UniProtKB/TrEMBL annotation:
The keyword DNA repair does not apply. This is Stage 0 sporulation protein A homolog. It comes from Orenia marismortui. Pfam families: Response_reg (PF00072). Residues 4-117 form the Response regulatory domain.
Length: 229
């Protein structure tokens, strides 16, 4: 049976684009706003929700809160059109760590959807994990369930296996920010940048967290940057 995906976006062309990209491999249902999306979510069982951050009426953050109240384990990909992820610390608190930035490229959409859906089925024990990528996936799965301690432990394991990749350091910094450990978080962002000076999420986080008008709500968790067709 195909996995079922719910798309909640008020822009018709975005709904059409996403559905065309995904309907060969998944059963896709669309909703035109937050209220419509919540009604459809309650009426059916979904494996994944693609949720626009900016919606008329109930905004994306509020919709995410209500989705998590209905099903705490639902995987959600947040859709954003902003240069940085506004209020992303709120979404991380609610367990959303995956993002798509407009405009979308079809291959990138299919790639992130496949990754997130596969992550949902992770059930192996720690002893069965053997690679950086596996520990990173388990860390993201734990964060989705708002188990930040377990997520941080998995990220540390990932780093112990491969200390040359920036993503785990950036996510560790994000978790530390959620715990109000700003200086420790900044060290993780700097570590990510020492490995890859062009890694944009860590650049965003370090720049934001060192500004005079620091706002934790703008934390960048590593959204997908994609080019339009």
């Amino acid at each position: 049976m195909n996995k079922k995906i719910l798309i909640i976006d008020d822009e018709k062309n975005i709904r059409i684009t996403l559905k065309q990209c995904l309907n060969q491999d998944y059963e896709v249902v669309t909703a035109v706003n937050g209220e419509d999306g919540l009604d459809k979510f309650q009426a059916d069982n979904f494996d994944l929700v693609l949720l626009d951050m900016k919606l008329p009426g109930i905004n994306g953050i509020e919709v995410l809160k209500q989705l998590k109240e209905l099903n705490n384990n639902i995987n959600t990909i947040m859709i954003t059109g902003f240069g940085t992820i506004e209020t992303a610390v709120e979404t991380m608190k609610l367990g959303a760590i995956d993002y798509l930035r407009k405009p979308f490229a079809p291959d990138e959409i299919r790639e992130i959807v496949k990754e997130v859906i596969n992550r949902r089925n992770l059930e192996a024990s720690k002893e069965e994990l053997s690679s950086y990528e596996e520990y990173l996936s388990y860390a993201k799965s734990a964060i989705t369930k708002r188990d930040f301690k377990k997520g941080y432990d998995y990220l540390q394991k990932a780093v112990s296996l491969d200390a040359d990749k920036p993503e785990a350091f950036n996510l560790m910094g994000g978790i530390l920010e959620l715990q109000d450990k700003l200086l420790e978080a900044q060290k993780k962002y700097r570590a990510a940048l020492a490995l890859d000076p062009s890694y944009q999420p860590a650049q965003d986080n370090l720049e934001r967290s060192t500004q005079f008008d620091y706002q934790k709500e703008d934390i960048n968790l590593g959204e997908k940057e994609v080019e339009g067709e």
